[in-house]
Amino acid sequence: MKRASPLLLITLFLAGIFILPVGVTTTTVHLQETSLDIEILEHESEPSWLPADRNVRVAIYNESNSTVPSYASNPGVDHNNASGFQDILLSYGYEATLLTTKDISNHKLTTAEYDILALVDNVPRENITNQIKEFWLGGGGLLALDGSAGYLCHFGILPSESEGSDGFSVYWQYDGDDFNVTARHPISKGYEKNQTVETGFGFLAWNWTALQGTSIASDLTMVARSNADSDDVTALAFEPSNKGGKIVTLAMDNHGVIYQDLNQMVADSVDWLCPRPKGRILYDLSHRPHYGLDSWDETVYTDFYFTTLRNTIVNHAYTVDKLYPSASGNLTLDNLGKYDMLILCESAINYTLSEIQAVTDWVDAGGGLVALNDAPYQPLAQQYLNNITRQFGMEMNTSYTGPAEIVFQTEYQHPITEGVSNVRMWTPGAINITGSAYPIYNDTDGNIVVSGSDHGDGRALLFADRRIFANGYIASYNNERVATNVANWLISWDADTILYTDEPNSVNYYRTPVARALNELGMDFYLVFADQYLNLSLHHRTWELIVVDNPWSSVDDAYDAMFDHVEGGGRFVMSSYRVDNSPSEPLWSLLGFQYITEMPDKTELHIWDESHPIFNTPYDYSVANFTPTWDYNDEGDVLGVFPNATALGGNSSSYDVNHSVIVLGNEGRTLFNGYLIDQFQGDLDDSTYSDNFELWLNEIAFVMRPTIDSPSDMSIEAFDTEESITWTPSSDRPMSYKIERNSVEVESASWGGGQITYDLEEESLELVTFELTVYNVAGSYASDTVMVTVVDTTDPSLAEAPGNLEYEEGTTEHLMSWSFSDAFPDSYVLYINGTEEEGGSWDGSELSFDVGGLSVGAYNLTLLVNDTSGNSATSTVYLTVTGPSGGGPFGLPETIFGIDTWIILAAAGVVVVIIILVLMKKR
Q: Which of 330, 310, 307 is nearest to 320 (CA)?
């Protein structure tokens, strides 16, 4: 994956590539709701499974002080069975940590450290109520049991209309009587609808009628109610559409014995509450900034805050924490390393040299910095922040103050200007830039008021007006849009995935079904929603995956770039209704289909291959079709699939190549949906999650499944320990692997994304199948099989040959033994003087032969042994058979050559005597 070089954006600016007309032209269609009898999920939710490498971190408020805080006038019987509740969570595999009042007052409760805070039928002490509220406002989830409802009401969390009052007898009271499950919801997915869980009387009961009169009515779900009164809510789920994290309240007393029948609801609540953030953001309070996020922050001024900024960012799927002053250090690499983006506002306390270096290093490593400085109203404060931004080639002019109010039109197309026509500022200063820093907005006199800098693997932005995102100002013109664009760009500019979405029904583009699917999969992605910015982004750099969710506007201008991406081997998922608008578009044939006709309105999408992973991994959809619940008026087109692609579903009940809708192509790298996924807003499979979310998630998980190479089949020598198989799989989110030998698992372990080597040692001559399967965190997988032929090319080895190589004629039994070693013995043949004497099977043991009874003479004995692979070895020895020993003189035979031995000895004696006499005479 190639990253954009640090200077690429400014290079493109200078080349004129980004200096294009700003107007965005869109083509829209009319929406209308269908009358189909399928329930539309009003509160679309992420599933309760999490990628296997993601821990759910729960903080449990543990308060032993039973004195009732003054704000909780009706706490009931306050219980604090925190350890018992911890045991439940631990039994389900969650991280569960007890936090005391002191821990929370020391700012240990942050969204970077914990996903959820559980209030176990207790109410926070007075000195930590704000810290808990800001945890929720920052995107953390809250799980509140029974009397903890008083805290939620008094501090305006649930509902905001109750702020200043604990809400007792108005919004809730102790009238709860059992749990009658009234809704299929992620927290009740382990229960049947109308199932009753008996808990007894006297627990928390929300007044549903009263809650429906509040501003959050549409964000609430009655999951269970009391058996005694259908207006009394005993299990309530709150998914805010404007601020804060999710909340679940359960009417559990938590005294001594925890109701085991509700344990599953507790566990599923934790799963649902867990944030899936697109990124984590830190706001610095440690240097006493001019503006804080909330009214209780210690700041220079109390007339402006960034509350709306924080709420907007959290509403767009980010989490936000505050950095409080600490004796152990403030802007340190340890603190910054937990976050993707840092916001610094002009502050009253200077930054130390070590802090300046830490911020610089953090940005260089990939962090995103937002600096909100201003005209020189407070020269020291301006200079303090200049000390930081100067490291990135940007600093405020120390003498210039702009007009009291000024509106800027967008001149350049930069990622933070997408969807932005005008930006409003109030008496801004002016920015001086050096090096690779570049302007993004100029005032009417040409002074820079917003600048950017690419630094190492990170990015930095400087704004010349600290009030641009302050309460009361952020809503002006397109300031809020700039804020969300800033987070998107700074956090995800180098993501491998780009998402285009123009889906109009969700809270915002960042909470569309497809965006939620990407967050659920834990994938970093860069989001665009305007077709011009899609086209620019696709030409700007290389992406691994392009996802196009296109139920609304025209993206025709980007088709060429999509074509190049797919042709170049990229992965691609698209849902669009616009094939008929350009039926001869080359992209369609590359994806493996052609236009046939308009898709009939409100038609079921039939699944043709239920075994395919896009219908069962990670989510097992388990229903034979998808049924639309929302009418976009034009939902898509019927496609004809080419031989180089595969149709997985269509508008006919059985496979028909010319009635296709979902097309898989390019060796599994591309998926095209000719029928809009977003219209499947119901829950046909009764999973408690919207069908469109499930299909998006499965399709993205499939195209992003791991890849794996295919090492060649091989032959190895039996018992050889030097051979191995090495695979080179890859995945952006690797998880684990397993290796099977002839379908039996022989190895499994976690996988970090690198090569996997399996050492071979085989003892049998056979064809062995080794299959590696690698998994990513979403459960998607890839497999490869290597066939290993085990051979034996080694000859048998002679261990011992016979040593008794002579015997006398007349010996009737003479055993000669050989020892050979071989792992796979087979047969033997004994030859005497080249003639086969004996043969048979050989099991590797010693071979002994009786060669007695031979006549006097010399014999060549050769033993040949063979193994099952045809390898052989021989051993040849020479045997002498002598005549029998007799009674002749001196142990000699009685006759030699048939002559009496005594005669021969006598003759020899005469000859010797004659020789001696002759010699003596010569002397």
A: 310
Question: Does any domain span residue 46?
Answer: no
CB 695 within 8 A of CB 626: yes
pLDDT band at 43 (very low <50, low <70, confident <90, very high): very low
- Mean pLDDT confidence for 71-84: 78
Helix (H, G, I), strand (E, B) or coil at 61: strand
- For the stretch 445-501, pLDDT in tens is 999 999 999 999 999 999 999 999 999 999 999 999 999 999 999 999 999 999 999
Average pLDDT over residues 353-377: 98
Single out the residue in 273, 297, 319 at which a domain terminates.
273
Give the integer Cα–Cα distance in Å for 776 and 52.
Answer: 9
Residues 6+ positions from 31 with CB-CB distance below 8 Å:
504, 505, 630, 631, 632, 633
Length of the chain, in residues = 923
* Integer angstrom CA distances of residue 356 from 46, 291, 360, 738: 39, 21, 6, 47
Query: Rounded to an integer, what distance in angstroms lies between the CA atom of residue 423 and that of residue 408?
Result: 5
Is residue 635 in a domain? yes
Report the CATH number at residue 461: 3.40.50.880
pTM, two decimals, is 0.86
> Taking residues 324-351, what's their average pLDDT?
98
| Amino acid at residue number 592 | G
Answer whether residue 13 is part of any domain: no
Per-residue pLDDT at 72: 87
Cα separation, 520 vs 277, whole angstroms: 9
- Mark whether 545 and 462 lie in a shared domain: no
Contact (CB, 8 A) for 627 and 684: yes
- Please, which pLDDT band fits residue 906 given cuts at 50, 70 and 90? confident
| 368 plus 414 within the same structural domain | yes
Cα 341 to Cα 461: distance, rounded to the nearest angstrom: 11
* Percent with pLDDT over 90 in the chain: 82
DSSP 71-136: T-S---S----HHHHHHHHHHTT-EEEEE-HHHHHTT---TTT-SEEEE-S----GGGHHHHHHHH
Is the link from the previous residue into 159 a cis peptide, with omega within 30 of 0?
yes
State whether 252 and 312 are in the same domain.
no
Residue among 57, 53, 50 at smallest CA distance from 108 = 57
For the residues 895-913, what does the mean pLDDT come to? 71
Percent of residues in the chain assigned helix, strand, coil, to nearest 5: 25, 30, 45
371 and 483 both lie in a single domain: yes
Lowest mean pLDDT among 260-264, 435-439, 819-823: 260-264
Note whether residue 25 is domain-resident. no
pLDDT digits (tens, 9 = 90+) for 600-624: 988 999 999 999 999 999 999 999 9
Asked if 44 and 317 count as a contact pair (C-beta separation under 8 A), the reply is no
Q: What is the largest CA-CA distance in the chain?
A: 160
Structural domain count of the chain? 6
* Structural domain harbouring 901: 896-922
In a 3-state reduction of DSSP, which class is residue 806?
Answer: strand
Nearest C-alpha neighbor of 135 from the set 245, 249, 250, 284 = 245
